[in-house]
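[job 0412] stage=fold_complex status=start
inputs:
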Amino acid sequence: MTFVSDLLASVSRRSRELIGLKAVEAPPRHAADVTALARTLLSRRGEASGTAVARAILDAYRLLDAPGRLAVLRDLSGGFGADRARLDAAIAAYQADPSPACAATLHAAAEPRRQELIRRLNLAPRGTLDLVRLRDDLLAHLPDNPDLKVLDDDLVHLFSSWFNRGFLVVRRIDWSTPANILEKIIRYEAVHEIRDWDDLRRRLQPEDRRCYAFFHPRLEDEPLIFVEVALTAEIPGAIGPLIAEEGTPLAADDARVAVFYSISNCQTGLAGISFGSLLIKQVVEELKRELPKLTTFVTLSPVPGFAKWLAKERKTETGFLLDEERTLLDALDALDWRADSLRAQKIDKLLARCAARYFLTAKTSGNRPLDPVARFHLGNGARLERINTGADLSEAGLRQSHGVMVNYLYDLGRIEENHEAYAERREIVAAGPVKKLAEQKG
Amino acid sequence: MTFVSDLLASVSRRSRELIGLKAVEAPPRHAADVTALARTLLSRRGEASGTAVARAILDAYRLLDAPGRLAVLRDLSGGFGADRARLDAAIAAYQADPSPACAATLHAAAEPRRQELIRRLNLAPRGTLDLVRLRDDLLAHLPDNPDLKVLDDDLVHLFSSWFNRGFLVVRRIDWSTPANILEKIIRYEAVHEIRDWDDLRRRLQPEDRRCYAFFHPRLEDEPLIFVEVALTAEIPGAIGPLIAEEGTPLAADDARVAVFYSISNCQTGLAGISFGSLLIKQVVEELKRELPKLTTFVTLSPVPGFAKWLAKERKTETGFLLDEERTLLDALDALDWRADSLRAQKIDKLLARCAARYFLTAKTSGNRPLDPVARFHLGNGARLERINTGADLSEAGLRQSHGVMVNYLYDLGRIEENHEAYAERREIVAAGPVKKLAEQKG
Amino acid sequence: MTFVSDLLASVSRRSRELIGLKAVEAPPRHAADVTALARTLLSRRGEASGTAVARAILDAYRLLDAPGRLAVLRDLSGGFGADRARLDAAIAAYQADPSPACAATLHAAAEPRRQELIRRLNLAPRGTLDLVRLRDDLLAHLPDNPDLKVLDDDLVHLFSSWFNRGFLVVRRIDWSTPANILEKIIRYEAVHEIRDWDDLRRRLQPEDRRCYAFFHPRLEDEPLIFVEVALTAEIPGAIGPLIAEEGTPLAADDARVAVFYSISNCQTGLAGISFGSLLIKQVVEELKRELPKLTTFVTLSPVPGFAKWLAKERKTETGFLLDEERTLLDALDALDWRADSLRAQKIDKLLARCAARYFLTAKTSGNRPLDPVARFHLGNGARLERINTGADLSEAGLRQSHGVMVNYLYDLGRIEENHEAYAERREIVAAGPVKKLAEQKG
Amino acid sequence: MTFVSDLLASVSRRSRELIGLKAVEAPPRHAADVTALARTLLSRRGEASGTAVARAILDAYRLLDAPGRLAVLRDLSGGFGADRARLDAAIAAYQADPSPACAATLHAAAEPRRQELIRRLNLAPRGTLDLVRLRDDLLAHLPDNPDLKVLDDDLVHLFSSWFNRGFLVVRRIDWSTPANILEKIIRYEAVHEIRDWDDLRRRLQPEDRRCYAFFHPRLEDEPLIFVEVALTAEIPGAIGPLIAEEGTPLAADDARVAVFYSISNCQTGLAGISFGSLLIKQVVEELKRELPKLTTFVTLSPVPGFAKWLAKERKTETGFLLDEERTLLDALDALDWRADSLRAQKIDKLLARCAARYFLTAKTSGNRPLDPVARFHLGNGARLERINTGADLSEAGLRQSHGVMVNYLYDLGRIEENHEAYAERREIVAAGPVKKLAEQKG
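[job 0412] stage=fold_complex status=done
writing structure:
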């Protein structure tokens, strides 16, 4: 029971007495006990024992099994709201005198006590990381427990404040980075799996590779997000050669293009707190400083929603596809459709046109691009630069996008303009050839 | 006009076009323009140009003269509240259905738009420091402009979040600390002035001196608060010898007592965001680790309110002072009362008793000690340990406390208990002899 | 031919012209060319192009195949001695006037030009590391090429100066050490192989493990020597449990003994330039500071020469072994002699006595212990503390020492005394029980 | 007597016993005792107590008064030479068989034991710094004690090895540099005095100022040499404006010229161990990287030998000066010769011609330029670029060079070539106009 005794040790004898834990022989093992402890933390005026109690709550939560944790999350969502009586009084006061001061009082009265609780938990040693992990649990339960939404909103509100970009620090990750951070890069790589330390070394050590991550002062050895970069002579049209094992690296000085070929979020508990845009911009600036000969900054990105969208279009007789095109695309239903290379060439040509149309016309109900990766990069101010067929021949690549990948271009001089066009007018910023492709008739 | 052109350069041409600054030849010189720019910042959905606009607002504010700045502060306080219609609707919804979700919506609707504005300003490069300085301005105007209070509340609310203790980093300050930080120590020392670099060296370099400061990741080279420490063999009863120029330093290994003889806040714009308590505790721990032979951690503190309180008591015929005591204390009205050393001895003895009484019985309307320094240290969990007469013979020392200083004792094993006693029950924790002194009859 | 073009690039066009390399299209591919280049480097008064030429020589040497390199080494040994005429003149002058000044001139004249050459090579970027590797080559050839000895002496003389202990820096190696250094720890571990990164983590991350290495400012990311430490409650008598995969780590605070269970030199080219003694002493001091409860610092060391020595003794009928003992030890010739545990117990008891005798009486021609590990630790001032049988049951352990391992004790208060006893009087410092064991009759 | 007891403490009781210091109650106070201790250090085979004894010798030396120290230096010079008998034997062996091995033995035998002594002293904590200071003493005595030369040679030999450029590290010095280093910059500035911390700040903080220093790993907080740089738009022709208090700094981005206006050696004990050349080259490279718009790197240097040389020329009737020129220059004998501005203009014109002649024709007996600053910069590969009259109007400037200063140009692409021309052929590399000036007739 070493963990239990650790926990007990973490709340000093005196602290425990002060908070009425005197009798407990073991830490709380039931959700109700954790919730009770949370009420204690919130109710005390003195803060001396606060961090110890906060630590105890977070430890006890972690000791619970999954149903126990869910029960705590539901307790926190259901209770810990604003004080009803106080809020009613503030409403009445505001309605009598809608002054800035009364509005401010109302705002304070309407704040769920949950927020203050989260702030106090955050003061425990390693509290921030534990709260990020608690939200990770929460997000897993949210679809089935919509009542957790209020707790999630409070976490997002506070995380946005604590993780505001002013606190983020970009660091280069390379082969001289501490091993305890590198092992997290291996673990968190989400796009193109890193198999082992040798594979990692191949991503970091050659002079035509770069990797950068964001860190936060309170999550010291935990990267928040990282991006892997390949330096190349030309904009690449396929992922295979970029991550192949063999090959002589390009001299950094001969590179003209920086390719962002993998962006991975590390903390699922920070979902929705966006850093990606900022990271890419900072890395572009860093690379420009280091290698002034670089002229072009692009991604090589997957197109996760394409195959699904196309499947639907192929069934729509009144859609933009001609009958013979629909017939040609029937080949896609067989896994080995690229075996007949002549036909594959024809299909690729058609796929390029379909993809262009997919990006420029397929929209969500909110009039944003259907493709989530497109939403991310266009939202950052990038331009859809080029569509590449036969670019990802892995099984996953064929399944989700029939092998299509695209390049998004980051042009620092245009990023703001593009971003505004997208954010204000929902414009899809794309290179001329892509636009033309989308308008082509079969 | 180099500053002006700097400013114009800081908002890139494209950003300025985007935010409708196209026509301006010079940055806003009027409060109204700054306010207008603030509305622009708040209204835009796109965030690409955000940091540039935020930077421009903060620069423009700084360019204004004092009346101009006040006007901006008043604009921000008067406007930028919650949206009235939205708030009324949220109230109605909540009254119809007082669910957590509706309460959350109400809370959001009641948030003054000012808070979002401050958050966006904070994202500008060096934005945090500029906001701290803006609050510095605000505090100077607050007494005469109570309407600024709502803005102050919003700043305090956000500063408390950004400056929460999880972000604070303690650093030792010594003679190998960068000069740009040391010059701030000289500038900010508030208790016992540091005259020049040689004087500073005497506070830092001898092996019986220590200095520690809190830093914050977004205010890199700006100490927030610092404490100066002298290592001694015994608890000191007077300040003079501690800060004298001459004298051989004590070998650190021979020290048994660490004396906190000066604590200075550096950022007036952070007034009310308390760090002092935490700093002292961390320094105690750090010193214990480095010098395990240290057994005692005390302050040598001024008693700023004592003379004023005593003057009143001396006039109160029905008070605790006997007639002959009041007569004896009449001597205090002459500046040179210590010249007659026999009488001074008698007076000191009486002063000690009065001071004990002052600490234990003189209270504010909120039932807290009248002495502000006592409130700080008792609130931190320290104990009032000893009263020293003839301890500060400087003019200021004689004027504010007739030469009396006190030691507060920080006993890590008791800090929590003391703090709780004070915070929960307003108990004045004092050493036995001090208590006895307070109860003595003349 | 990228390496070749790299090399050419490393000598700038202008440098090459200056040193008469104008015509070469490719770097020297023959030993004679390298030697010629070395003469060029040595002959020039101007030093501007010096580092470029030095770099070119070291690169060209590295490009040669093994026979080519050997040829260079022999050239450097055969030529590049002192200038004969100058030396003869200095001898004559000294014999005429044996003053300090003439002796100094003679010393200078007798210095092989080789030393100046090595000094100039050392000024090339990364020159020191390349020279260490050149000596690595040399040592491999030395047994068959005794004429290389003069070059080796010069290298040792200069290395001793450059790697004097004043330059050595001790650094803790742990799981947050940069990966490029950790991979060298994996590669260089010479005593108990580290299989992979997971195995490495087990040696570094648990709180009862420590690792320290020496670094040198000119060999930045290259450890020179490192020692692995296990923290234990008792002096360990067997290696198996120490490096086993499973097991709960001991809380560092509960440890009383620090066990140096593996010391590995990383640079064979620095053989004979001793750092080990210093490293152990510094680590002992470091550990004492960090964990004041540690009372005992020991090794758990192999006994590489024991089995071989014993084999000889077993054949010597007039030796210290009784006949029945010799018969008992015959069992050792079978690999599975430990299978019969009762007999093994008897054998172990006898082995302990033999080992004690081995340490205390078996000597080299120079009257030093036959066992090389004993020479190292006794030379450092350690004491032979305890003999452990059945301590290393690996095949290698059984083969070289019939499973025997020993503990050497490092007692800081005794190190100097022990060292002097050993260095001045060749005394074998051993604990009482070990001495008694050595004197026991069968 | 705190220093004395410190010293005694530094040699542990056991060490003292081991080296026969048992009886001493106080450290050696006589030169003879120090010398005896040095013999002890040299004679012992065991090295355990070595560093303690070395430390004791260096401390005892420092405790001596000036005559005592001189006596030690003379002892070290007179004794501690090579072992006579061993050297004679080595000579005989070499004469019988002049093989590389015998030459090596001869070299070893001829080495003064002094060198080994210095090496062992160097191993004491802070030993290197103390040896540098010992040589400082020595250099002061050398002119009157030529017998110290052998000791100086040995120190130079070893310092050259320990301070070889591979160990030197360049660091930028700015206003965020630790105060303990900055105070040394104030102390060591040799060319243009730094009056106080405010003056220092003016040299470091403006964005058109830079300062760089060399450090060595064993002299951690001691700069070896530093150079102060001003960034300007044009090559400056006078020192006054460069170091004036007032003035708006130039934006770093607008600078085209980097001016090295002050180079100061910090350690007189390292005189003759040259770093200056290397520092300038590294700083040029660093500045080029940081500010690619810089095109020109020059010094603004004094001409210390000019006035003295000219005084001689003015007396030489058969020299290059015409009679009327000699008459004109008579004005220089009055301190206020610049008061008559018309005449001053004429004189300046003539001075420029004289200075050009001085640089190009005035030579030492070794055929090197008479001007020591010229020897330094030409030896580094710089070119004499321009002669500036009225450039240093301080009293010192008028006295040593009638106000003349010069610019030396560092052109990285030409440095090697220039250096070789100077080093191999004693060529004075100068700009065309300077050469023409030197050839002009009056």
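[job 0412] summary: The two ends of chain B are 70 Å apart (CA to CA).
[job 0412] exit 0
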